[in-house]
Design goal:
The complex is a heterodimer of chains A (461) and B (402). Helices cover 34% and strands 20% of the residues of chain A. Chain A is built from 17 helices and 20 strands. Chain A has helices at 8-11, 21-26, 47-60, 112-119, 138-144, 151-154, 185-189, 223-235, 248-258, 278-294, 306-317, 319-322, 342-355, 384-401, 420-423, 426-439, 457-460, and strands at residues 17-18, 40-42, 64-67, 84-87, 94-98, 103-106, 124-125, 161-167, 173-176, 198-205, 207-208, 212-220, 242-247, 268-276, 299-302, 329-332, 335-336, 359-365, 370-371, 373-377. Chain A has a seven-stranded antiparallel β-sheet, with helices on both faces. In chain B, the strands form two sheets. Chain B has a four-stranded parallel β-sheet, with helices on both faces. In chain B, 49% of the residues lie in helices and 8% in strands. Chain B folds into three domains: 2-98, Orthogonal Bundle (Fumarate Reductase Iron-sulfur Protein, Chain B, domain 2), CATH 1.10.1060.10; 116-266, no CATH class; 272-400, 3-Layer(aba) Sandwich (Rossmann fold), CATH 3.40.50. In chain B, helix 10 (175-187) crosses helix 21, helix 13 packs parallel to helix 16 and helix 14 crosses helix 17. The chains are: A alpha+beta (461), B alpha/beta (402). Chain A binds chain B through residues 20-23, 25-27, 29, 31, 43, 69-71, 87, 89-90, 92, 109, 111, 113-114, 117, 132, 134-136, 254, 257, 318-325, 328-330, 378-380, and chain B through 12, 15-25, 33-37, 42, 45-46, 49, 54-56, 58, 60-61, 64, 77-82, 316.
């Protein structure tokens, strides 16, 4: 038993906890390749349930992990051995929608896409749109400060969270917002990956649905040409609502599934979407396309209607899953590099994968330099995991060296924890630890994540 | 024994799941329970876990796998193209075989299917029970009648010949849908005849993991209907027949859902029965049966056909299953009820005081929707879409004085 695990057996007396092996087996993993070993599973239905389990864990010194839909890619929801997994998926009510103030109070288990569906009748939506938005929960979005294609202009989750109701490790309930306090504790909580407590309700900001949009798929002969066009578009002063790029191999995999009519002969595809008032949309898209032509665009196709637009986005957003058509497993990275270095880093990623004899595909948020290289492999192949991890580490190193950061939106979790010192010096890591300590002095909330030498439990692991 | 469990499931099929979770919102049991054990991703991991020995096939695993409605909503949602249908079918069969009690019970429940005289006898008893109000409403049995209203439907003798698949339950319980199917196809100039009611497609048996009985029934159907154009008005039968008849067997047998058939020959309907102008069209809430949407990909035909004389309104829940699932609603009444109440919540967002119809192309869905219809929606009838077309034809004829 890990040293920081307290008396789990006594926590298990709670009749609402389940310890059935098959249930624990499933909540011991997320959508990454990492797994742990949950000690118990708890599915709260209301705030009181959360308070009771967190208080119980505190009394008996047992760590706990809040879990959403389990679509995370960095192991953030993977439980440390013996932890209680608190699955928030039964707390899934939209409590109120305020169409005038353009906000809504939702429980953490509400699915991202469901929220936008529910607010559609007011002409409003929740702007962060991770590729997993059909499945992922708002709670998970808050935990990871999730992004998505349209966050290029709209900003990531933090920009869309007004307040969060949180159960802290000592069982107390606080509402973190931007009013009153000297610090923006709400801002600190968003993206804290479950280490500051459990969010039980979130007040989100809703965004007006744009009256018009133009969605265009542009083919380029090479990734390099496309990446230069992306950099030039933004340097020219136009910020489209989304600028997404897919390389040729992933385009073929996706086209096989969605039949979006993507050009299969292009070296790279750029999906450009512009939203707003009609005249602005037309003038912006014309500017973007002029720049694309300057950089040698080989094909331009504009979505004729909403159905065509939907299928383009479906292709982009299901790209990761479509990989299995080529290899059964993938390791997805999430680093960010300065836009002008895109071409150079992508080149390096290609060489790294080649050196480890791995196939690599790229689908990414080009507009904000957020790379998503996917290394493809078959787990059943002997020795392949070593090669995958070496290549992954190298990709992170190259990205950081180019002036980039470890993660754009998937979070640090377990996956990037040990790379934190590539980016942060001891002083800033210590400052982060202190902040974590201020929220959770006992280190029971999702310990062992993010911080390589976290105060409390993580120290001793 | 457990080490050999699920060895018939293809290892590559299991490995093709990358656990991305994009299937989750399309699974009715996950939607209602929020539990990973009740999701396609979870079930695949459990099967893989049992297969590789990380998990023991205990009651918990069995319950999780058993709770799958087999709506296949995860199939079109999966970007990896995981063949969940191929994964779950042998598992359900193995689980049924392992539990003698459940096997016997399922065989007993399904025994009248494909035995029309026995089914009619039981229908007579059930009709009496229904009149005496002792038949539980939750069973989803429609208002029964000992009459078979389609029995008098005569062949017109002219036009291209098509066979309306009689089926077992459809024939005994939904004779009015059969009669209306005949009305529509005849009006479109086809020579429509019914197949022998002893021909059962075997779908419910296969769904319940009783493959040998299903196989026997399938064999008979294949022999009797070889070469025919088979029009099916039960989506469940249609999907199964498509799988068994149009597969590697006799390829000249054509199986087609009745709404898809009308859609493909729509000019034959619109020529005598011109589309109505927009304000005259009545709105109809269209429930897409999983068999049509997820397995046949044919659900849009219903929307298209209805759009000429009605105003089809889709249910805004991305085609989530209603929870009927063959005998599922009988074996898992609690989960099935949760699923259907979610369906009705979505339906309520698109119905008005003047909504009179929900259309459903599958008898299983129809029964389940009727049995669980909330009292606030009691004015709404659940009908087969072909009945709406038939009613339009009859009304037009009356107006024309024919």
């Amino acid at each position: 038993m890990p040293p920081c695990i307290g008396n789990l057996a006594s926590v298990r007396d709670n009749p609402k906890l389940t310890t059935k092996p098959h249930e624990l087996y499933l909540v011991s993993r997320d959508a990454s390749n990492i797994s742990g070993a949950a000690g118990a599973l708890f599915m709260p239905r209301c705030l009181d349930d959360v308070v009771s389990i967190v208080s119980d864990c505190r009394r008996r010194n047992v760590p706990f992990v809040a879990r959403g839909a389990g679509t995370g890619l960095a192991g953030g929801a993977v439980p440390p051995d013996g932890a209680v997994v608190v699955s928030m998926m039964s707390m899934n009510r939209i409590r109120e929608i305020d169409p005038i103030g353009r906000t809504a109070w939702v429980e953490p288990g509400v699915l991202n896409a469901d929220l936008s569906r529910a607010t559609a009748r007011y002409g409003l939506h929740f702007a962060p749109d991770p590729s997993s938005q059909q499945s992922c929960s708002i709670g998970g979005n808050v935990g990871n400060n999730s992004g998505g294609p349209h966050c290029l202009s709209a900003g990531v989750t933090s920009a869309h969270v007004v307040a969060v109701e949180v159960v802290l490790t000592d069982g107390s309930v606080v509402v973190l917002d931007t009013t009153g306090a000297p610090f923006d504790l709400r801002g600190a909580f968003v993206g804290s990956e479950g280490m500051f407590g459990i969010a039980t309700a979130i007040q989100v900001r809703l965004t007006q649905n744009p009256p018009h949009h133009a969605t265009v798929v542009v083919g380029f002969p090479t990734i390099d040409a496309g990446a230069r066009a992306v950099s030039a578009i933004i340097a020219g002063g136009t910020v489209p609502s989304a600028l997404e790029m897919m390389d040729a191999p992933i385009t073929r995999a996706v086209e096989d599934y969605v039949h979006a009519g993507f050009p299969l002969d292009a070296g790279a595809l750029l999906i450009i979407e512009v939203e707003g008032l009609l005249n602005g949309v037309e003038s912006d898209i014309a500017t973007c396309l002029r720049v694309c032509s300057e950089f040698g665009a080989t094909s331009i196709r504009r979505a004729a209607d909403e159905a065509e637009r939907a299928v383009i986005w479906k292709g982009r957003k299901t790209a990761f899953g479509a990989i299995a058509r080529i290899k059964p497993n993938y390791y997805l990275h999430d680093t960010v590099v300065p836009r002008r270095k895109l071409a150079e880093v992508l080149d390096a990623v290609g060489s790294i994968a080649h050196a480890e004899d791995l196939a690599v595909m790229n689908v990414f948020h080009a507009g904000d330099g957020n790379l998503h290289p996917l290394l493809l492999f078959d787990r059943r192949e002997a020795g392949v995991m070593g090669r995958v991890h070496r290549a992954g580490a190298e990709i992170v190193r190259v990205s950081v060296e180019a002036g980039g950061v470890l993660s754009g939106e998937h979070g640090i979790g377990l996956e990037k924890r040990d790379f934190m010192n590539l980016m942060f010096d001891e002083t800033s890591l210590a400052a982060q630890s202190m902040l974590r300590h201020a929220f959770d002095p006992h280190g029971l909330a999702n310990p062992g994540k993010v911080l390589p030498s976290a105060a409390g439990c993580g120290d001793r692991q | 024994m457990t080490d050999r469990a699920f060895s018939r499931v293809d290892a590559d099929d299991l490995a093709s799941c990358v656990a991305c979770g994009l299937c989750l919102p399309h699974c009715p049991t996950y939607r209602t329970s929020g539990a990973d054990t009740h999701s396609p991703r979870g079930r695949i991991a459990l099967i893989a876990g049992v297969r590789d020995g990380s998990l023991v096939l205990d009651d918990g695993v069995t319950e999780a796998l058993d709770s799958c409605v087999q709506c296949m909503g995860c199939l079109p949602a999966c970007p990896s193209g995981v063949r969940y249908d191929r994964i779950i079918a042998p598992v359900v069969e193995e689980l049924t075989a392992r539990r003698r009690g459940s096997r016997v019970r399922r065989r007993l429940i399904l025994s009248p299917l494909g035995r029309p005289r026995l089914l009619r006898l039981l229908t007579l008893v059930a009709t009496l029970a229904q009149r005496l109000r002792v038949l539980p409403r939750r069973l989803g049995v429609p208002r029964l009648s000992v009459r078979r209203p389609h029995a008098s439907c005569a062949s017109t003798g002219g036009g291209e010949r098509v066979v309306i698949f009689s089926g077992c339950v459809m024939d005994a319980w939904y004779g009015d849908v059969h009669r209306d199917t005949h009305v529509v196809l005849t009006a479109m100039g086809f020579d429509a005849r019914f197949s022998d009611p002893s021909l059962c497609c075997g779908a419910l048996h296969a769904h319940a993991g009783l493959s040998s009985r299903a196989g026997k029934l399938e064999e008979r159907v294949e022999k009797e209907l070889a070469g025919a154009t088979v029009v099916v008005n039960s989506a469940g039968c249609g999907a199964h027949l498509l799988g068994t008849l149009s597969g590697d067997g006799d390829r000249s047998t054509k199986v087609v859902d009745v709404m898809e058939f009308i859609d493909a020959n729509i000019e034959r309907l619109l020529d005598p029965y011109q589309p109505l102008s927009e304000p005259l069209r009545e709105s109809v809430v269209v429930h897409d049966a999983c068999h049509l949407r997820n397995l046949q990909g044919a659900h849009l035909a219903t929307h298209r056909v209805l759009s000429h004389h009605h105003r089809p309104v889709p249910i805004p829940d991305e085609g989530l299953c209603c929870g009927a699932g063959g005998a599922y609603a009988i074996e898992h009444p609690d989960i099935a009820r949760d699923i259907v109440s979610r369906k009705y919540s979505a339906i309520k967002t698109v119905t008005g005081a003047d909504t009179r119809f929900i259309s459903s192309g599958n008898p299983g869905c129809t029964g389940h929707l009727v049995a669980n219809r909330p009292t606030t929606l009691s004015q709404i009838a659940v009908v087969h879409p072909v009945q709406l077309v038939a009613r339009m034809i009859t009304d037009t004829k009356i107006q024309r004085g024919e």
